[in-house]
């Protein structure tokens, strides 16, 4: 590895040969870092933290610190981070708790901007964007390709569906189905994330089907159970509706509706 002379690295840490480590960075004994990863100056990596390949951590982040949870009592929990993630300045990611399964997990190819907080027992998918100062309470789940705009705040145990979009400074205390855009200080559903779907290669026909599904869920006057049944029928003819059906079948917290 290529480490600055001022870095403090526990000899028990497992670090690939080509990892770069900046000045005054601290790395604890249970940390594992994969090939091609760059750790900037003044970063703290602690806890049982496993970091994959080709990640880039900018300066002043705290990664793998104990949870901000009074129930935590020193248990051997962990943080797992995948590959190709960008983590900008002053981010804080915590290890899990035994009550929440023991693992905080971050997937691949995520773009995580400055001052983002990911609390204990969260699960982040792939290709997620979290803009500056967005915050997740404990036990949250964020699906692939979701976007959290700056200063968005997500309550604990909330699930954010794939391809969804949270607007600037929204307070989210209910789960968000796939494809849905929410906005407002108290987040409310505003429509389908059509621009995001276009960028990810959805065809006009597929986007139209998603819009039809949105209308069934939000504009038809159907009860949630009736909407589920209608969406299940739609999914038989349009597979892009399946993520909505699956989400509504397992989500535990009430959805924004």
Summarize the structure.
Helix content is 16%, strand content 27%. With 257 residues, the chain is of the alpha/beta class. The chain folds into 2 domains: 138 residues, UDP N-Acetylglucosamine Acyltransferase, domain 1 (3 Solenoid); 54 residues, Udp N-acetylglucosamine O-acyltransferase, Domain 2 (Up-down Bundle), CATH 1.20.1180.
As a percent range, the share of helical residues equals 10-25%
Query: Treating each run of at least 4 consecutive H or I residues as one helix, how many helices?
Result: 4
**What is the structural class?**
alpha/beta
User: What strand line-up does the widest sheet have?
Assistant: 1-4-7-10-13-16-19-22-25-27-28
- Overall pLDDT: 98
End-to-end separation in angstroms reads: 51 Å
Radius of gyration: 20 Å
Show unreliable segments.
none
**What overall form do the CA principal axes indicate?**
elongated
Name given to the CATH architecture of the largest domain: 3 Solenoid
Q: Major β-sheet, in short? A: 11 strands, mixed
Percentage of residues in DSSP E strands: 25-35%
Task: Quickly count the domains.
Answer: 2
State the fourth-level CATH superfamily of the largest domain: Hexapeptide repeat proteins
Question: CATH topology of the largest domain, which one?
Answer: UDP N-Acetylglucosamine Acyltransferase, domain 1
Outline the structure in words.
By secondary structure, this protein is an alpha/beta fold. Helix content is 16%, strand content 27%. The radius of gyration is 20 Å and the shape is elongated. It is built from four helices and 28 strands. It has an eleven-stranded mixed β-sheet with strand order 1-4-7-10-13-16-19-22-25-27-28. A nine-stranded parallel β-sheet has the order 2-5-8-11-14-17-20-23-26, with no helix packed on it. The chain has an eight-stranded parallel β-sheet with strand order 3-6-9-12-15-18-21-24, with no helix packed on it. Helix 3 packs antiparallel against helix 4 (242-250). Strand 27 (180-183) and strand 28 form a beta hairpin. It has two domains: 2-139, UDP N-Acetylglucosamine Acyltransferase, domain 1 (3 Solenoid); 197-250, Udp N-acetylglucosamine O-acyltransferase, C-terminal domain (Udp N-acetylglucosamine O-acyltransferase, Domain 2, Up-down Bundle). The model has no long low-confidence stretch (mean pLDDT 98). The longest helix is centred in the C-terminal third of the chain and has 15 residues, at 204-218.
């Amino acid at each position: 590895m290529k480490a600055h002379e001022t870095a403090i690295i526990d000899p028990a840490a497992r670090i690939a040969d080509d990892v770069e480590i900046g000045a005054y960075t601290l790395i604890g004994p249970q940390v594992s870092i994969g090939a091609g990863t760059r750790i900037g100056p003044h970063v703290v990596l602690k806890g049982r933290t496993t970091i994959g390949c080709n990640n880039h951590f900018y300066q002043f982040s705290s990664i793998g610190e104990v949870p901000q949870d009074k129930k935590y009592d020193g248990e051997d929990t962990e943080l797992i981070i995948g590959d190709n993630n960008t983590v900008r300045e002053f981010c804080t990611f915590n290890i899990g708790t035994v009550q929440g399964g023991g693992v905080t997990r971050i997937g691949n190819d995520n773009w995580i901007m400055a001052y983002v907080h990911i609390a204990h027992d969260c699960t982040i998918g792939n290709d997620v964007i979290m803009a500056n100062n967005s915050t997740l309470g404990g036990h949250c789940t964020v699906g692939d390709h979701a976007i959290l705009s700056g200063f968005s705040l997500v309550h604990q145990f909330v699930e954010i569906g794939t391809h969804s979009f949270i607007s600037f400074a929204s307070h989210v205390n209910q789960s968000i189905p796939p494809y849905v855009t929410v906005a407002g200080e108290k987040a409310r559903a505003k429509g389908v994330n059509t621009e995001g779907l276009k960028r990810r290669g959805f065809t006009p026909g597929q986007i139209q089907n998603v819009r039809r599904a949105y209308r069934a869920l939000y504009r038809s006057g159907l009860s949630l159970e009736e909407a589920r049944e209608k969406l299940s029928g739609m999914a038989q003819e349009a597979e892009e509706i399946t993520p909505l059906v699956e989400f509504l079948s397992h989500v535990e917290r009430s959805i924004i509706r």
